[in-house]
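@channel sequence for tomorrow's demo:
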Amino acid sequence: MDANFKKEVIDQSLEDIKVELDEEFDRNFQRKAFFDEKQWPERKFDDGVGSLMQRTGGLRGSIRSRRRKDELVYSSSKPYARIHNEGGEIRVTRKMKGYFFGKAKEARGKYQYKKNGERRGNKRNRELSEKEQFYLAMALKKVGSAIKMPERRFIGHGRTTDRIIRDIVEMNFEDYIKRHPIIEKP
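structure tokens (generated this afternoon):
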């Protein structure tokens, strides 16, 4: 393979693909979907602080890409990145049970009451009651039992990434051919 071809087409294509996919994978967090595929499943309960995948921005900001020879490698420093991206099962731990008991207690403390001490029958209290029941159910799960995490894919291979890669490589190849014609003109 000609050294110029490798440098001008393959190396440039990899750099262009890296820039484009970095931007598109980041945009998946705004789209709340993997490109134009199905939307991420909603959370059981939204605490009013935004999407689970965007709450702190930690996962989104942890995505790194780098070139390794003639390939691109994407990674995250967050240990929960893979389970969110691919879905799967996680095992209940004592620490998780404690967290969910705390969340149930927190929900319980936010109820609104009438002057006579009864709970109000308003929408907020109904939502808190559902939330408290969910957290209690989670807290009462046995240590070692499984919780199914749905896939919320934000990075990876698919038809849109294939199209992006193909378009960039074709553009760089055509540009190279224009600059280095195979047949000399008389």
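heads up for whoever presents: The two ends are 26 Å apart (CA to CA).
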